[in-house]
Design a protein that fits this description.
Largest sheet: 7 strands, antiparallel
Number of strands: 20
Structural class: mainly beta
Strand content: 35-45%
Shape: elongated
Radius of gyration: 35 Å
Amino acid sequence: MSAKNRTDLKAEITAWPETNFDIVTNHKPTEQNILDSVVLNRDVLGVYSITSAGTKNIDFTNSDTIIINTTESISINCNNITDGELKTLIINKSAGNEITLLNTTDIEYDPDYVKTLTRIGFYILAKGEISLFTVPIHKTFNFSAIPAPETAGEWHEATLTSPWIALTAGVRGGIFYRLNRGYIDISCSITRVLAFASTICTLPAGFRPAFDYNIPATYFVGSGTTDTVINTAGVISVSIAGSAPAVIKFTVSIPLT
């Protein structure tokens, strides 16, 4: 036995005999249909495609759920909803278009919020007069308002201060930097020729931390650690002079705030 939709179930129950009611013939299969329909959500669908603005009459006769696809701002007048019936209205629209419901009792209806949505779902229930219905639930998820996942920015190569040059042995040489979710990532692999300068490079505005930070770094000739710093002006510097360090390497993420 296949499940019936809500509209057919209503007609079936309405047709039950008032006398000599047979629980096996009438009640049990109808009860099963109700359960199947609830589980399978078998609704009779009505679909409206609207391409012009203005007031639109929507007829719920023989429809459990109506889907409206519109590219315009429209006013909707729902017709033929019997008192006590629960109907569903789904509107697919462009963000920014205004949707107005006529002859309604608004419950938690926020027109400014609805205007931002690209899909709206209403459960509409007739109340009192046929033309007057409530909107008990309207807020659906605004898929278009989900911000794109924040990703790391592009890598940029810093201009090194002489005599610092990019190290080319087996790694990406030089100093590269990027923004990454509130942090600045810095990758350094450099060496120098003969002379020494404490300033390695200066990062541009927008890529500078709000506080000075010591950067853990390794150095060679030999091996060890060196006191490398980035300050609020974006200057990356090293404090060890003389014959060491000849090579500096580090990879670090530093908060911008």
